[in-house]
Give the backbone structure.
Amino acid sequence: MAQHSTVEKELVTYEREMIFPISVRILHWLRALAIVALALTGAYIAWPMFERPDDTNTLVQGWVRYLHLLTGFVFIGVTLVRGYLFLFTKETRERASFRDVFSLKSWIIQIKSYFWRGHLDKAGIYGPLQLTVYFGITVLAILASISGLVLYAYVYHHGLGGALRPMADMVVHFMGGLARVRYWHHVFAWAFVIFIPIHIYMVVWTGIRFKHNSVEVIITGYDYHKQPVKKG
Amino acid sequence: MDSYNALYEQGVARLKQLQQLTPRMGESLQDKMEAKGISRRDFMKWSATVTSLLALPLSFQPLVAQAAEVSDRVPLIWLHMAECTGCSESLIRTDSPSLDTLIFDHVSVEYHETLMAASGMQAEENLEEAMETFKGNYLLCVEGAVPTANNGAFLRIGPKSETGLQVVTNAARNAAAIVSVGTCASFGGVQAAAPNPTGAKGVHEVVDRTVINLGGCPPSAKNIVGTLMYFIMFGKLPALDMFNRPKWAYGKRVHDNCERRGHFDAGEFVETFGDENAKDGFCLYKMGCKGPYTYNNCPTERFNAHTSWPVLAGHGCIGCSEPDFWDEMADFEKPLGRQIVKGLDASTDTVGAVILGASVLGIGAHAVTSIFAKSEEA
Amino acid sequence: MGKRLVIDPITRIEGHLRIEVEVDDNNVIQKAWSSSTLWRGIEVILKGRSPYDVGLIAQRICGVCTYSHYRCSTEAVENALGIQIPYNARLLRSLMHSALIVHDHIVHFYHLHGLDWVDVVSALSADPAKAAKVALKYTDKPIAAGEGDLRAVQERAKGLVDSGRLGPFANAYWGNKTYRFTPEQNLIALSHYLKALEVQRTAAEMLAIFGGKSPHPQSIVVGGVTSVRDMLSPARLQEWKQKHDEVKDFIVRAYQADILMAAEAFGQEPSVLGGVNVKSFMSTAEFDIGDGNVLFKGGVIMNGDFSKVEDIDPSQIAEDVTHAWYKADGPQHPFDGTTIPKQTDMVERDTLNGKLPTLDQDGKYSWVKSPRYKGEPVEVGPLSSILVNYVHGNKRVVDAVDGFLKRSGLPFEALLTTLGRTAGRLLQTILVSEFEEETFQALLTNLKSDETTYVKPEFDETKEFKGHAMVEAPRGTLSHWIRIKDGKVQNYQAVVPTTWNAGPVDANGKVGPYEASLVGLKLEEPTKPLEVIRIIHSFDPCMACSVH
Ligand code: HEM
Ligand code: HEM
Ligand code: NFV
Ligand code: SF4
Ligand code: SF4
Ligand code: F3S
Ligand SMILES: [Mg+2]
């Protein structure tokens, strides 16, 4: 919870506030890693660009696909746990951001702030645009996972793959063919790839602009707020 | 195993039923085979082939053989809609030497415009007579899509100039089972490709009954004959997949059993047609092979008496057994991500890269502006 | 006022064909109309697609002459982009093409056309022993025509007839007086009908060796051929050779023998001694294996002038749609051709079978366009190719024709008949089958020093291109015409053999080959119009092709 600590420099007082508990941070970085790995391995699957090695015993495509699936399952796991935490944890500040999503004023404030106008005031820890984007990313994650699992079900016929087959059949039928599923999976991959640089930039930029610890916050968990100058 | 036992019982019951129908041909199969110079041994070999083709345990072999013997009592009506006759051409190439004609005899061909001797009024009479005599008992095969625009006027058939739509709905009513042979009849096929000027549709979209879809442009003779055999043996439809294709033939992707799969997994790809990699038989994925998204048994059953199949001939699979493949799988020589997005003059990867580039540019602009922007916040 | 007869469907062809004729009181045909009753719109569908994909799509115009459109379409694109394919690719394409022609002609003669010549019921009363001797008249080594073979076939046919359910043979024209074979001859031909079912399969396999499958092979791409592994495999080459030998054996020992037998038996049958009434013939060069070694030369014979043959001028081709169900301002050259449907209604009329909807002869009545060369209708097909090359003095063809006329005792004029059209197809089959050996040898020789099968196309998508290709398909001269803009197909037109032959009358009242061929024909029994069907079959109709 918010702890008060006074930094004695130039008589400015900062407030150290715990924003993200360790679980959220670990999950974030696991997920970030998984997305990068999935995008790289996925890109290779879509267009196998490396020269073949000299021996046929090295299953390049096989290993890449294996990695892709491994990270894919990590990704699915993280998405599930993260979703659970968001919705059910006792900590309410994340959910509080919903209020901003339904407030036109908050939207205007946030968008203006990106164009160097005004400050960023929000009810929870995210701005409305932010929450919407993160929500969108979650939907994207679900879609990528479902399409990924459908593709998986036709590559591995036993165990989980076999168990997923009836669901996969339904999806394929709905989509009008496996090619469509694969196509959309590819499109979803692009959406992630485009999200990454924008996301990192926005995080870094808001930190600089509004002078708080937005980068560190996802690492250490703490943010610092400037307190009104207290005469010592 | 239990399900097989049940199926076996069903097959035996079906045979009894067939045997009770009065034989239309005086001769026994034995005589017929002798007349054709086919020994009992050849015949048993063939029925073993069919048994394994249908993915049935070998214990079914005697059943297959018996079914073949009585199957001359199953009348077949074959209609042509909007099509190219490639499916019929595929059927006439059916292999297992000398037995093709036998199968022709078995499945009494009551109506098939490409094969029958009668024309005009006489052909029309044959169709009407067969539909009446074998009401509820005939197998209906349809080749070709059904044009539905302008009330179906783009296809007219017969002296009364009925539309294809009328002819097919009429014949479907009293059929024992309906089989759509080929991608046209199953899913609309080439004439249903954009902009589908005739409103062509698959048969299952115009009749309100279960239709077996034999995808493929054309389907192999094995897939056609095998499906007919299944119906003859068990008197019911085989297990079907999500697009009502028989699972025994369409249960696996082309990619699953492809002979080049080892090269796919090893990351060995043909880079241009005819290059050294092509000579080595590497995987055709980068040449646009759609085997990973296509359900068919081409790699195992092949075409023309096992002679070849598209991937063996060095060309990727174009997905010809899939719904709407003419639109969905084009460009045929490019993998999915490099295909032209419909309605856009660029591929998914180009669109993605452009948006990514635009985002990065936007970021750059925003960052530079930020440096000069006068903050309103202290 | 004549009496009208409607024949729909014409069976044993590809597709949906309706023929209507008007007979006078002596049952002589005064006028005839030919109509195809299905439109699929493939030319419309091809627009806007990648030039690399059109071959595969165009191939689906027809599954019978499958490969013709695939190759022609691909070569139209190559012509537009200015691509020269490697020599090996040309040879492989030729080998596939010859396999197709041989396959198609065997199936046509035996399984589609055969029952117009062969009375299956009459074969039942034949004496197999006598028939075996008869067979020796037409070749000294008959196939499937020994006494035992023939007896077995006869018993099999008997079983079918006795059962009372004739299946595909039911309700036909058995006993018609224009069937001229003796019972023994009918039995021989029936035996070959069954044998040909096996042989055609082998011929199809020859196409599949380099094509991947048949119908609808999948091994041609813009720039060459993909089946490089099959080409480099001695086992595959041997497989091809073996099948070639089997098929050629059948052609010489059965097909040729049967045509000689027909020439003898039908030599005096009036209903097959007319039927060539459009006296202009067109055919394109085909089977060019380099160094001037070309099997068939191209050219046009105009208005029955057999003294000369002119080169085809592609700019002289135009399609008229006055009586076809399309909208257009006048005859169109295929580069600028349009395909805009404009269907009109049928007309209710009294016919020999009561009141029926019939073709509107004064308005539009068919989905087939009417191609014209210099404004004239021309006949295309194997007969045209044979005639054009005969007039050219092409030695191979002259020898084949003269040899056939000598053996059959027929005069040259006999070629200009229904019977001649059917014989012309045999001669083409023999020539193609012989020439494919030369092609195969050329391939073996070239493989010693060259394994190239493909050149990567250079395609500047910002430029505009146009191109066309002409191939000699089984049913005659086929041409595809393409315009490319912004990297996509801007316009596409196919002018197809059966379009040339089956099209309706044009704006100038000039009648096409099908409609002309029937005029003057006398019918035995108009409601059982075997004679009409036979003449129309001699063209080997393919309606999916003709309309597309
Ligand atoms: C951020 C998430 C993901 C990204 C960016 C991603 C990216 C990709 C890409 C680009 C492809 C190639 C598609 C093409 O052919 O164009 C692919 C294929 C595939 N992905 Fe993913 N993917 C993600 C998540 C998943 C998940 C969660 C799974 C399931 C566990 C999965 C399973 C697969 C499978 C099975 C394939 C096909 C592999 C093959 O056919 O050999 N993916 N992925
Ligand atoms: C400089 C590095 C980064 C910083 C400071 C940062 C910061 C943050 C913060 C503060 C959040 C909101 C908290 C949360 O929901 O977890 C967040 C969310 C998210 N980040 Fe990052 N991030 C960084 C890099 C990345 C990278 C490289 C990726 C992916 C490749 C990524 C993917 C995500 C995703 C998917 C979410 C949203 C959904 C969620 O987890 O709830 N981040 N990031
Ligand atoms: N007419 C025609 Fe074809 C041929 N031969 C075409 O090019 O058959 Ni379908
Ligand atoms: S499915 Fe293909 S082969 Fe069969 S009729 Fe249609 S286009 Fe022809
Ligand atoms: S050639 Fe096609 S089907 Fe075969 S392994 Fe490669 S991608 Fe799969
Ligand atoms: S294109 Fe068709 S034939 Fe088989 S390999 Fe592909 S499904
Ligand atoms: Mg045309």
About this structure: Residues 423 and 487 of chain C are 45 Å apart (CA to CA). The mean pLDDT of chain C is 97. Chains C and A do not touch (no CB pair under 8 Å). The longest strand of chain C covers residues 476-485.
